[in-house]
Specification:
Layout: H1 8-22, E1 27-30, H2 35-38, E2 43-48, E3 51-56, E4 61-64, E5 69-72, E6 85-86, E7 91-95, E8 99-107, E9 114-119, E10 125-128, E11 134-138, E12 144-145, E13 151-156, E14 159-169, H3 173-206
Protein name: Ice-binding protein C-terminal domain-containing protein
Pfam families: PEP-CTERM (PF07589)
Signal peptide: 1-25
């Protein structure tokens, strides 16, 4: 009878592959210092780590300078003004693949101001001033944004400059399915190899002289 021990290497390899898919490294979208990408445009695209994010400021303009990123109202089209997000300004971000939003980093946030974030189909959340010069918000729960959904940032009580945000890619079910199929194939190969080896071992054992 074949024991589980014979299949341990295959099971370990499958577990490692599945774990790697579920723990993708975070991809950071740094938004400051990119006037050529954002300034004077109401929409812009930025690709980092194979993920493309599309930014939409509605009827306003995106702006980026050496330290900040934000939105200027429709009357201000001067390059590199690095405005903040505030008032009725809304930043909508979509992605070309399914992602989890894991972090948001902002500056110029005071105790009376909040970041209003709507991530995918989740309810809107309020991110309050942390008291630090740079406010970093890490999300421990899943904040998935599917293709066709959006990551929306607004302001309440004032304005703030968006520095960066981070996402992780979400493996497609098909990819996980292929890994599972590969694991089954590997297990079957191990089983066939063990089955062929067992009769030979029994034959060799029968030829040993009796004591």
């Amino acid at each position: 009878m074949l024991s589980l021990q014979a299949f341990r290497p295959a099971l370990v390899a499958l577990a490692v592959s599945l774990f790697a898919c579920s723990t993708e490294a975070a991809i950071v979208f740094n938004l400051f210092g990119q006037p050529g990408t954002f300034d004077n445009n109401s929409t812009a695209m930025l690709t980092v780590g194979g993920i493309t994010a599309t930014f939409d400021a509605g009827s306003d303009n995106l702006n980026s300078n050496a330290m900040t990123f934000g939105i200027s109202d429709g009357n201000n089209t001067s390059a590199n003004n690095g405005d903040a997000i505030g008032g009725n300004e809304v930043l909508t971000i979509t992605f070309d693949q399914v992602v989890n939003v894991t972090q948001v980093v902002a500056t110029n946030l005071s105790t009376t101001e909040q970041i209003l974030a709507t991530i995918g189909l989740s309810p809107q959340i309020s991110l309050d001033d942390t008291g630090d010069a740079i406010d970093t918000f890490n999300f421990s729960s899943s904040n998935e944004v599917a293709v066709g959904q959006s990551f929306v940032l607004e302001a309440s009580g004032g304005d703030y400059s968006l520095t960066s945000f981070s996402v992780t890619a979400v493996p497609e079910p098909a990819s996980l399915g292929f890994l599972a199929i590969g694991g089954v194939v590997l297990l079957n190969r191990r089983r066939r190899s063990a089955s062929r080896l067992l009769p030979k071992q029994e034959a060799d054992a029968s030829e040993l002289p009796e004591r």
